[in-house]
Amino acid sequence: MKRGCDVEVYEQARQLKEVGAGVQLSANGTRVLYALGVGEELKALSCEAEGKEIRLWNTGEAWKLFDLGRVYDFPYFTVYRPDLLEVLARAVRRIKPEAIHLGERCTGFVQTDGAVRLELENGSMSGDVLVGADGVHSLIRQTLFGPDKPQFSGIIAWRGIIPMERLPARMARMVGVNWVGPGGHVVHYPLRAGTLMNFVGALERTDWQVESWSARGTTEELAADYRGWHEDVQTLIRNIPVPHKWALMVRPPMPRWTVGRVTLLGDACHSMVPFLAQGAVMAIEDALVLARALTELDGDVGSRLARYEEARRERTRRAVEGSADNIARFHSRALADPGTAREYVEREWAGHNVASRYEWLFRYDALTETL
Ligand SMILES: Cc1cc2nc3c(=O)[nH]c(=O)nc-3n(C[C@H](O)[C@H](O)[C@H](O)COP(=O)(O)OP(=O)(O)OC[C@H]3O[C@@H](n4cnc5c(N)ncnc54)[C@H](O)[C@@H]3O)c2cc1C
Predict the structure, then answer these.
(1) Phi and psi at residue 261, to the nearest 5°
(2) From the CB of 133, is ligand 1 less than 6 Å away?
(3) Cα 106 to Cα 69, 159, 228, 263, distances in angstroms
(4) Mutational pocket test of ligand 1: of 8, 10, 11, the residue with most ligand atoms within 8 Å of the beta carbon
(5) How far is the CA of 345 from the centre of ligand 1 (A)?
(6) Are 30 and 74 in contact (CB under 8 A)?
(7) What are 2-15's pLDDT values in tens digits?
(8) Radius of gyration of the chain (CA)
(9) Rounded average pLDDT over 183-201
(10) 335 CA distance to ligand 1 centroid (A)?
């Protein structure tokens, strides 16, 4: 919209609200948010962790991580999702107050030479381009390429939000922590100026396979999953008011996701397990590169969309694969025994190894990427 495109957003939810969970936004994402003019607004609601740590699941031994958050030109924010959504929606409405249509479920579309018509439950509308930003179960993707065939990763993710005042002072720190253990890991980091702690636990388990943001679990079930883990992990679990669970599915990288005037972005075309913390950041990068392709390139709409897809294909494929590679790394059996675990952690999280896994992600500039 800032580049002169007239955009309408159709969202099935009746209210604009995100799940109460956190999201990490690395420099490659905050660079885009600053370019869109919402960086400072978001910063006021976010946390910038002072550091990151790896901790061992049973002994609690901690290693300070080479700090990725501070070495780039843009900050590493940890954000409460409803705050991010609110800041983005406000920015859209400042430009076009009626752009976001709620309670509008898309049911299909029809493409002709000159336009694309979006079918909604309560009507239809036409435009030059249709962008399916409709998430992991994308109807637009399935209409373009047929039914979805996700594979269960064998991992379920637990998440919860803990009021910081419930935690003992030694745990209520402005530090992002990644606990690693055989068959599971836990990540926690502060949100909302340090008033909340976000909890994400990933565990290898095959008995539950629902991919949903809203499925609830119980404290007892979560605690049973992490039996034998360090007392600090138990303290986190005990203080989560409502734990939620999500079965992690994997979909292989798509070779293409544009047909004529219709394209996809975000999880609709490259969902990934959340172990590089890049799914939302990739969607943010996609959006900027797509806007640039539509407004900076010549040629018909189809060729501009194809250039957007080309510019994003290899990078998002690496992110999908890099995220999956972290399953084996975070859950290695070498972590079972404190003797082998120390050597393993010191090797896998050595500065140069961490840099080779993250530098290419964080240094990317969606504003100057060649189209
Ligand atoms: C446990 C966990 C932790 C994560 N942590 C991070 C992290 O730290 N950093 C990070 O970058 N990423 C993280 N991610 C990934 C991130 O949440 C996703 O990649 C991101 O939400 C994708 O955004 P999206 O806009 O593509 O899709 P979504 O957020 O799923 O949004 C899709 C929207 O489309 C709407 N919709 C769907 N179908 C229709 C329809 N037919 N008609 C109208 N509207 C429709 C939905 O209601 C929804 O609002 C995490 C994911 C999980 C599961």
Answers:
(1) -95, 5
(2) yes
(3) 38, 29, 46, 15
(4) 11
(5) 31
(6) yes
(7) 899 999 999 999 99
(8) 21
(9) 96
(10) 31
Got the DSSP string for 195-238? TEEEEEEEEE--S-----SS-B--HHHHHHHTTTS-HHHHHHHH
How far is ligand 1, taken at its centre, from the CA of residue 271, in Å?
9
Using an 8 Å Cβ cutoff, are 182 and 56 in contact? Answer: no
- Rounded-to-integer distance, Cα 32 and Cα 266, Å: 15
Does residue 258's CB lie within 6 angstroms of at least one atom of ligand 1? no
44 DSSP assignment: T
Of the residues 34, 76, 80, 189, which is catalytic?
Answer: 189
**Cβ-proximal residues to 199 (8 Å cutoff; 6+ apart), any chain:** 158, 159, 160, 161, 162, 186, 187, 188, 236, 237, 240
Identify the residue with better confidence: 250 or 261. 261
- Would you state the pLDDT for residue 9? 98
From atom 38 of ligand 1, which residue's Cα is the shortest distance away? 134
Q: Is the pTM of this model over 0.85?
A: yes
Ligand 1 pocket mutation pick from 134, 199, 323 by most atoms within 8 angstroms of CB: 134
What is d(CA 34, CA 355) in angstroms, rounded to the nearest whole number?
Answer: 24
C-alpha pair distances (Å), 262 with each of 73, 90, 287:
34, 26, 14
